[in-house]
Structure formats: structure tokens, C-alpha cells
Specification:
Elements (H helix, E strand, L loop, with lengths): L4 E7 L10 H10 L4 E8 L8 H9 L5 E4 L2 H4 L4 H14 L2 E4 L15 H42 L10 H12 L4 H8 L3 H10 L10
Parallel strand pairs: 1-2, 1-3, 3-4
């Protein structure tokens, strides 16, 4: 059976390059004689379960397909409850998760494994993924805490000014809204949050409830 490999690339926001790891995934696949047949790329926080491209991958996948990732934290920085929900969806689709930073998962990208060995690797891989998922979530929470502490200190010293506005991106959003694109279309094209679209729409006095879906 020929493995169907679907590659998933994620960056946290539009300021980061989600395609940065493409070369590493292609090299991993080539070393094993595999071909990446589909790419799913998005700019979205790993702490959020709502990720359109990830769930498009899962909807597209057939049982036994491989979802290839750079690292487990590209898949999840989720809370424990959301991670369990995502794992259940992956299991129901029978998708094999293979991550470059998780060597125990690499065996999932092969077909020449007997049933007993395959089950053993699945069990070990599942435990390791849970550990890395917990580490990824803790890293996310620690960074958020440090950021909040730094902002609080800067505010106390009168030095906090907030994140500089991305004027070029916001001008693009305003132009797209001016042409009648829906908020969802703007989000998909720019990778920005719905709150940002709402802010720009309000600023431009172009709030259009009929297209905000």
C-alpha cells in the first residue's frame, strides 16, 4: 500500500512564516521514499482548537493517511480538554501523526511493520505525544505569563505602549472590506483575527453585519 502523506504547516500569526519548515518536511519524506501529496498551511495559534486547515486535513484524510508535522507543538498547544477532543478526532479518522521531533512516530511513516510492533509503537507514540503536548502547553502558558508580567512592569514605569500597529496589513483589510468582501474572506486572506477585522471595519465606518459571517 502506498502511503498518502499530508503535510501540515502552522505559524502563530501572520507575522511569522508558516512555510519555514517546508524544506525539512520534504527532506524527511524524500529520505524515506515518500511523496507529500497535499499541503495544509495556516497562520493560527496552536492554543486554539478552531483551525480550519488542520480540520480540512482531517476531513480529507482516509484511514491510514500520514499527517506530517515539523513538531508536536505545531499540532497542539491546547488545554488538556481540547487536546483530548483533537486526539479523538484524529483517532476517529485513523490518521497517523508523524512529527520530526518525535522519533517514536517515524515508524508510522512505513508499511513494513507487523501488527504487534505497530501496536507497540502506537502505544509508545501516544504516550510521548501526550508528554510533548503537555510541555507545549506549559511553554505557551509560561510565555503568556512572562509577557503579562513584562507589560505590567512597563505600565507601572510608564513605558508600555502596546504592540505597534501593522499599518500596511490594516490598510489591506480596509481595502478588502471596501470592496465588499466578508469578514471570513478577509480573515482567510490575511490571517488576522476577527477582532482585528471588526476594529478596522469600525474605524473605516464600514460595519456590514450582513457580510460578517
Amino acid at each position: 500500500m502506498v502511503l498518502f502523506v499530508r503535510a501540515y504547516l502552522r505559524a502563530s500569526d501572520a507575522s511569522q512564516d508558516a512555510l519555514r519548515a517546508r524544506g525539512a518536511l520534504e527532506a524527511f519524506a524524500a529520505e524515506r521514499g515518500l511523496r507529500i501529496a497535499a499541503w495544509y498551511v495556516e497562520n493560527a495559534s496552536g492554543s486554539k482548537l478552531a483551525r480550519p486547515e488542520l480540520f480540512r486535513l482531517l476531513r480529507d484524510a482516509q484511514p491510514g493517511d500520514v499527517a506530517l508535522l515539523e513538531a508536536v507543538d505545531r499540532l497542539t498547544r491546547l488545554t488538556a480538554a481540547d487536546w483530548e477532543e483533537l486526539k479523538a478526532e484524529i483517532a476517529s479518522r485513523q490518521v497517523r501523526i508523524v512529527a520530526l521531533d518525535l522519533p517514536t512516530s517515524w515508524m508510522m511513516a512505513t508499511n513494513g511493520t507487523d501488527a504487534f510492533t505497530a501496536r507497540m509503537f502506537e502505544a509508545v507514540n501516544g504516550m510521548m505525544m501526550d508528554v510533548l503536548a503537555a510541555v507545549a502547553r506549559k511553554d505557551y502558558e509560561d510565555r503568556r505569563r512572562r509577557q503579562a508580567e513584562g507589560q505590567a512592569k512597563a505600565k507601572a514605569n510608564g513605558r508600555y505602549r502596546g504592540r505597534p500597529e501593522d499599518t500596511k496589513r490594516n490598510a489591506t483589510i480596509a481595502a478588502m472590506l471596501g470592496k465588499g468582501l466578508s469578514w471570513s474572506q478577509v480573515q482567510s486572506a490575511t490571517g488576522c483575527s476577527r477582532a482585528t477585522v471588526a476594529k478596522i471595519a469600525k474605524r473605516a465606518d464600514k460595519v456590514q453585519p450582513a457580510t460578517a459571517n
